[in-house]
Amino acid sequence: MARSAVPLYVAVFVALIVLTGVTVAVSYVDLGPASVVVALAIACVKAVLVLLFFMHLRESPGLTWVVALGGFFWLGILIALTMSDVLTRGWLPVGGP
Amino acid sequence: MTTAAAVVVEQPPLHYLNESYGVRSWLLTTDHKRVGLLYLLSLTGAFFVGGFFAVMLRLELLTPAGDLLQAETYNKFFTMHGVIMVFFFLIPSIPAALGNFILPLMIGARDVAFPRLNLASWYIYVLGAAFTTYAVVSGGVDTGWTFYTPYSTMSSTTQVMPTAIGIFIVGFSSILTGLNFIVTIHRMRAPGLTWFRLPLFVWSLYATSLIQILATPVLAITVMLLGAERLLHVGIFDPAIGGDPVLFQHLFWFYSHPAVYIMILPGMGVISELVTCFSRKTIFGYSYVAFSSIAIAVFGFLVWGHHLFVAGQSVYAAMVFSFLSYLVAIPSAVKVFNWTATLHKGTIEFRTPLFYALGFIGLFTIGGLTGLFLAALGMDVHVTDTYFVIAHFHYIMVGGMVMAYLGGVHYWWPKISGRMYPENLGRIAAFIIFLGFNLTFFPQFILGYLGMPRRYHSYPEEFQVLNVMSTAGASILGIGYLLPMIYLLWSLRYGEPASDNPWNATGLEWQTPSPPPRDNFEHTPVVTTAPYDYPGREVVVD
Amino acid sequence: MIEARFSLPLFPEQASTLAPRVDALLFFLLGVSVFFTVAIAGCLVVFAVRYRRRPGNEVAEQVHGSDRLEIAWSVIPLLLCLVMYVWGAQLYFAAASPPPNALEVTSVGKQWMWKFQHLSGPREINELHVPVGLPVKLLMTSQDVIHSLYVPAFRVKQDVLPGRYTQLWFQATRPGTYHLFCAEYCGTLHSGMIGQVVAMEPAEFQRWLAGGAGASPAASGEKLFSELGCDTCHRADAQARCPDLGGLLGRNVTLANGQTLVADEGYVRESILDPGAKLVAGYENIMPTYQGLVSEEGVLELIAYLKSLPERHP
Amino acid sequence: MTEHAAAVAHQFDDAEQQRGAAELGMWIFLATEVMFFGGMFTAFTAYRWLYPEAFTHASRHLDALLGGINTVVLIGSSLTMVLAVHGARHGHRRMLLVCLALTLLLGSVFLGVKAIEWSSKWEHGLVPGLHFTLTGADAGRQELFFFLYFAMTGVHALHLVIGICVVGVIFALAWRGHYSPEYHNPVEVTGLYWHFIDIVWIFLLPMLYLIGRHGA
Fold first, then answer.
1. What is residue C108's three-state secondary structure?
2. Rg over CA atoms, chain C
3. Three-state SS for C269?
4. pLDDT score at B4
5. In chain B, which residue's Cα lies nearest the Cα of C12?
6. With contacts defined as CB-CB under 8 Å, which chain D residues touch C291?
7. Least confident of B27-31, C79-83, C209-213, D172-176
8. Confidence label for A97 from pLDDT (cuts 50, 70 and 90)
9. Distance from A97 to chain D by nearest Cα, in Å?
10. What integer pLDDT is reported at residue D16 of this predicted model?
11. Which ipTM score applies to this complex?
């Protein structure tokens, strides 16, 4: 039981290294606008791996999940509502046609 | 609620105030009660320094011409009034002083979860205050407490850096207090004290702490970026390289709007305690009052853009923010209705804390309703950046928060000091404050709608009569604030000794001696009943 | 003088088409507020007196709450709030959409003065003359920090930002002289950054315009256009290395990265100061930046000149 | 209160309550850290949207190879950290000490590589405000990118410095045998903090180094 966690940690480490390789390799391919999505998706997967296994979120009580997700959720609020301004500023041209 | 009543007679009884003496025993204390008092002391200092600047501002505004202070001095004074009152008085006031003292008592704990961190928070506060004091005495700062770029980074020649550092530092004090309280409320409750048996003050402190931990870091990083920009003469808010000053306002208000709820939510919690205690009634709609605190904390994060309706924000974002702003009004209204309903069919005792509570409800109602004016887009265009806004937020901050703070200080004074304050003087002071407050700030609503912009050192002559009224009110208000300060100090020596539960209130804090012993309770209390379990016929209304 | 000193106005003048509409919303909001304030304060006083502790009323009746009441006093305020929201948003959108025929005035704010320029030539400082009965649009920018142009009698206010254009429009309804304030704190003499708006009958305004000296901004812009050498590249002939600018304002432009946008004043300003930022499709990034070579007023004059150019069809 | 075990502070009833409080406290602290970095991430998102070309150009001045190497180093340090926690949990003192030492080493390597990168930015005149020599049409916007680059990597490195100091203290205490399978909260919460630093870097790598690599 005690020993069984070590291979898991090593496996997660290998997965993280592989994903790092993938994200670097993919960045040299022109995917157009999708490249941002792919890069961030890979980063999210890596972050989730670290959270679940290295930070033991997998075995943590529900409250810890709430706190961990809460942090990212609030960051989402900050980015989303700020971008609601930045993205729509040009919709009503200043000066008008 | 019950505690195991083990009567131990000691002569004289040892409590947190006399268990040890000397400066060291205070400066190195980890007792949440003593840390609370350290805060109480520093906050009172900040309040009177901030108040001094307010008095000078009002005196200057007696006449339309800027003849008492120079424009530069006036600008520094309103900036320092704002910075000191917001960051060094309002934000820490109820949570760090009263909350620190009462929270562990209320939940039957021996201390907060991290007592040393708690003391560290106070030292961080003092360090932040030291930087800000340095800024004040070394020439002052004139950017307004909002630090809008590029004025604060490229134009102002005053002490922006030390002030920014002070605010950066004091933010961590606030974060650590919030962190401490959340962990304390989650992990340190007495046996049987379930979430729905918690006093509403605890709920409101919990909601406050949520905002403190999630909003304050954004202020910290924003102030840091601002400082770097000022230092390097180039930065991300600098229009010369394509930076966007409106982005600074987004980041700033992402903290500073929720910060308004940091200030008012604990006040609301205090009012729930006062209204129930002095009408000897259970709270009307416990779960609605409790959850409205959480709702205010969460929705409070979604509305900051209503400070930017004329700032060059997109019209569409403004519409979203306006809509969300109306949503946050509802839980506040629900609280007011529930407090009012609580008084119905109570048995109301007119003690000083209740005077403050009634004052709070009335003034908060006016403050809240005028918030609806500001959330209405087309209306906000006219009244934003005028005295209407000044009046609105002083009704919330001073008419609301400071009233609740003073109400709470009086209510828990017997527990804190072991002495009663003089009741009649207390009532008179509460009445003077209510009167002075309204005379100071009500005329400012009219001034604002007439179009008098805020932060004006001189103003057109037709605004003078209303300004004179406001200044007259301020002088009454000032006397009102000095009174409690004097008689509370007086009561420390000459006040009647307080019993353990002078108000016959429910709540664990009243079931331990006044003042409480170092570890709060002789034996850890076990809770078996709902809060506000006052006697009386139970009536069920569907 | 004595009279002015002791006058006590309680309501601002209504001098624009927007003003009565904002005031109507004010009265609705006031009505709702007074109702709730009186209701709550009334309840507080009545309850406090009626249920005061006295012999015969020493024990309260314990009521734990009522879901019906809670729903009622959540939903009714919410509905009222929605009315306020829609009403306010309508006014705001109207205030943000100037009519196409609006008379254009450009404005540059700086510490601590307001500069205005009419399209037909006259320049003013801290004073703005406008005709009654015609929509007027201000295209504004700041030379240093953020300012905010505020005319209480018109119920309009808009921040003026460095590095960007913002706009504001109004239609004055009554001749007179009205306060013009800077509403965004901008430094030492913020409260001195004031002036007046003079609304005049159209005929009188025309006379005032005619009496004003100075070249029109379009003419100054044309001069600047050749002084800066813009016309060596931006020409209407086939060998031109740069886009023809006739009729550019308001046109759809396709950029090199495939995006399209409507060419507004902000776009033109950006393209002068940072030409590579939004390159037009089919052209090389060869234009140098004019950052530091042309003032904000100069940029506004160039824009006025471009607006005066006819659209040329090859 | 004498029944409390020596390692349990007076305000807690038992070790379990103490452990729960410590872990919850650290997670909450990390949530505040998310928001602290979040301010910069928001600014980055906004400007990345406003000036995509300039950000692509500026990003090409960064060394993706060094960024990649540093990512591997930091992920490696996360592995050694989690193994140290594993050692503490199960009372393997040697494993705890060796892994903490490796974590310290890898953290320092990361900072060393970072220092090399920063000094090369200085040499190339890419430090906003102090030594910025880029010219050309979008130089201003690129300066914006580098301001954010230094702010983000700088604050990240500061966190790592603090992390290294804390791990150093933990190492010293572990050396003296302070920790046991029953009491090793400081090791656990330090681990959480360390992994958080790793997560921040996981996002910084693609955002700063990898945008628009293609066609470079």
1. strand
2. 27
3. helix
4. 47
5. B450
6. 140
7. C209-213
8. very low
9. 22
10. 87
11. 0.91
For residue C311, give how far its alpha carbon lies from the nearest alpha carbon of chain B (Å): 30
For C86-125, b/e burial (b = at least 16 CB within 10 A) is ebbbebbbebbebeeebbbbbbbbbbbbbbbbbbebbebe
Identify residue A36 by its one-letter amino acid code: V
Asked if residue B496 has pLDDT above 50, the reply is yes
Q: Which of B295, B340, B343 is nearest to C36 (CA)?
A: B340
Q: What is the CATH number of domain C12-53+98-211?
A: 2.60.40.420
- C265 closest CB neighbour out of A90, A92, A95: A95
For chain C, residues classed under CATH 2.60.40.420 are 12-53+98-211
3-state DSSP percent of chain D in helix, strand and coil, to 5: 75, 0, 25
Q: How confident is the model at residue D136 (pLDDT cuts 50, 70, 90)?
A: confident
Contacts of residue C56, Cβ cutoff 8 Å, sequence gap at least 6? none
pTM over 0.90: yes
How close, in Å, is residue B64 to chain D by CA atoms?
42
For residue A94, the chain C residues in CB contact (below 8 A) are: 139, 164-167, 264-266
Answer with the residue of higher pLDDT: C247 or C202.
C202
Report yes or no: C256 and C314 within 8 Å, Cβ to Cβ.
Answer: no
Domains and CATH numbers, chain B: 29-511 (1.20.210.10)
- Amino acid in the structure at residue B39: Y
Between chains, do C88 and B377 touch, taking CB under 8 Å as contact? yes
Interchain contact D87–A (C-beta under 8 A): no
Disruptive mutation site among D47, D210, D211 for chain A (greatest number of A CBs within 10 Å): D210
- Residue C293 touches partner D, C-beta closer than 8 Å: no
Do B540 and C58 lie within an 8 Å CB cutoff?
no
Say whether residue A94 is in contact with chain B using an 8 A CB cutoff. no
Interval B439-484: pLDDT, tens: 999 999 999 999 999 999 999 999 999 999 999 999 999 999 999 9
Query: Are A63 and B186 in contact (CB < 8 Å)?
Result: yes
In this model, does residue D2 exceed pLDDT 50? no
Share of chain C above pLDDT 90, in %: 55
Structural fold of domain C217-308: Cytochrome Bc1 Complex; Chain D, domain 2 (1.10.760)
pLDDT at D215 over 80: no
Q: Where in chain C is the domain with CATH 1.10.760.10?
A: 217-308
CB contact under 8 A, B317 and A81: yes
pLDDT score of D3 more than 60: no
Which chain B residue is nearest to residue A84, measuring alpha carbons?
A: B317
Put simply, the answer to whether D53 touches C276 (Cβ < 8 Å) is yes
Q: What percent of chain B has pLDDT over 70?
A: 98
Confidence of residue B386 (pLDDT cuts 50, 70, 90): very high
User: Quick one: DSSP state of residue C191?
Assistant: G
Question: Best interface-test mutation with D: which of A16, A49, A77 has the largest number of D CBs within 10 A?
Answer: A16
Residues of B in Cβ contact (< 8 Å) with A81: 250, 302, 304-305, 317, 320-321
Q: Tell me, which fold does domain D15-209 have in CATH?
A: Four Helix Bundle (Hemerythrin (Met), subunit A) (1.20.120)
Cα separation, B245 vs B12, whole angstroms: 63
Is residue C3 pLDDT above 60, yes or no? no
Query: Between D185-204 and D15-50, two packed helices, what is the crossing angle to 10 degrees?
Result: 10
* Cα(B506)–Cα(B280) distance, integer angstroms: 9
**Cβ contact, residue pair B315, A70, below 8 Å:** no
| Confidence band, pLDDT 50/70/90 cuts, at residue B12 | confident
Residue D211: helix, strand or coil by DSSP? Answer: coil
* Chain A hits for C165, Cβ within 8 Å: 94-95
Does residue A74 belong to the interface with chain D, where contact is any CB pair within 8 Å? yes
What's the helix, strand, coil split of chain A in %, to 5?
A: 80, 0, 20
Give yes or no for a contact between B406 and B97, defined as CB atoms under 8 angstroms apart: no
